[in-house]
């Protein structure tokens, strides 16, 4: 293969691995990557390359390496003896890959580390009940309806619908102010 | 059809995710809420969820807006 082709296939492989491992793209498979990127390479050889790159990406991602750490890591890998050493092209491809994907991979790892469902969305509405079916005029305070959209990473949403009167809203607001106060105390501002 | 519940109690926790098997330096703060809800049938259920700090702040802002609207009607 020409150099350009080698580089292209390599970055395709790295991005493919990221799609599978970090971005939940189930349609990407090891077999697909082999057929699309390395149709002529013997299967055993491809498997070894695939596992090697996957292992390296995992090490880089787990440590969330910055530029200097990555360069040191890759240099050490290129110096390893025997078939396990990294070629200069491979090191360059990994470096380019990580530069463009670091933020996204980290975002995905953070999402994976949340085990409770997360809040995907919310909507609310305030109602005023002015009469009932018996023709009476009703003087009840306003009522707020809130719908929370909750879901785990990679799963469908679940909706929770709640009704609040003013007292309840104020109780919740008080707790939220407490939470905000704790955040201000602990977190250097976001 | 969704049933509309009423909030009985809300517990909260502010935590910091530090490290995990897939990421050694998570360092991401989060807010967990545990809602105790009474359903129209009278049954009590619990729902827990987590938010990042920006998500919580948006949630808080929406609640304040809602409270402001309730005061004006």
Tags for this model:
heterodimer; A: 190 residues; alpha+beta; 2 domains; 3-stranded antiparallel sheet; 6 helices; 3 strands; 55% helix; elongated; B: 73 residues; 27% helix
Short description:
The complex is a heterodimer of chains A (190) and B (73). Chain A has 2 domains: 3-112, no CATH class; 118-186, no CATH class.
Structural notes for this entry:
Chain B: Belongs to the COMM domain-containing protein 6 family. The complex is a heterodimer of chains A (190) and B (73). Chain A is 55% helix and 14% strand. By secondary structure, chain A is an alpha+beta fold. Chain A folds into two domains: 3-112, no CATH class; 118-186, no CATH class. Chain A has a three-stranded antiparallel sheet. The mean pLDDT of chain A is 90. Chain B has 73 residues and is of the alpha+beta class. Chain B has one domain (6-72). Chain B is built from one helix and three strands, in the order E-E-E-H. In chain B, strand 2 (28-38) and strand 3 (44-52) form a beta hairpin. The chains are: A alpha+beta (190), B alpha+beta (73). Chains A and B meet through helix 5, strand 1, strand 2, strand 3 and helix 6 of A and strand 1, strand 2, strand 3 and helix 1 of B. Strand 3 (158-164) of chain A pairs parallel with strand 1 (4-17) of chain B, so a sheet runs across the interface.
């Amino acid at each position: 293969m020409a150099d350009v082709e080698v580089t292209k296939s390599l970055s395709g492989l790295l991005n493919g691995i990221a799609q599978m491992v970090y971005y939940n793209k189930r349609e990407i498979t090891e077999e697909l990557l082999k057929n699309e990127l390395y149709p002529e390479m013997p299967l055993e050889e491809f498997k070894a390359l695939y596992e090697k790159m996957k292992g390296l990406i995992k090490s880089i991602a787990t440590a969330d390496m910055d530029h200097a750490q990555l360069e040191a890591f890759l240099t050490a890998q290129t110096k390893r003896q025997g078939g396990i050493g990294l070629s200069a092209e491979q090191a360059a491809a990994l470096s380019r890959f990580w530069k463009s994907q670091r933020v996204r991979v980290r975002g995905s790892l953070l999402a994976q580390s949340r085990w409770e469902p997360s809040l995907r969305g919310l909507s609310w509405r305030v109602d005023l009940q002015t009469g009932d079916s018996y023709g009476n005029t009703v003087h009840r305070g306003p009522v707020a309806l809130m719908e929370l959209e909750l879901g785990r990473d990679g799963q469908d949403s679940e909706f929770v619908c709640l009704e609040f009167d003013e007292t309840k809203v104020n109780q919740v607001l008080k707790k939220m102010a407490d939470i905000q106060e704790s955040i201000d105390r602990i977190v250097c501002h976001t | 059809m969704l049933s509309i519940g009423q909030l009985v109690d809300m517990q909260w926790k502010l935590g910091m995710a530090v490290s995990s098997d897939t990421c050694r330096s998570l360092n991401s703060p989060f807010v967990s809420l545990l809602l105790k809800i009474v359903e129209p049938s009278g049954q009590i259920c619990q729902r827990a969820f987590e938010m990042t700090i920006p998500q919580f702040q948006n949630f808080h802002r929406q609640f304040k807006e809602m409270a402001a609207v309730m005061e004006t009607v």
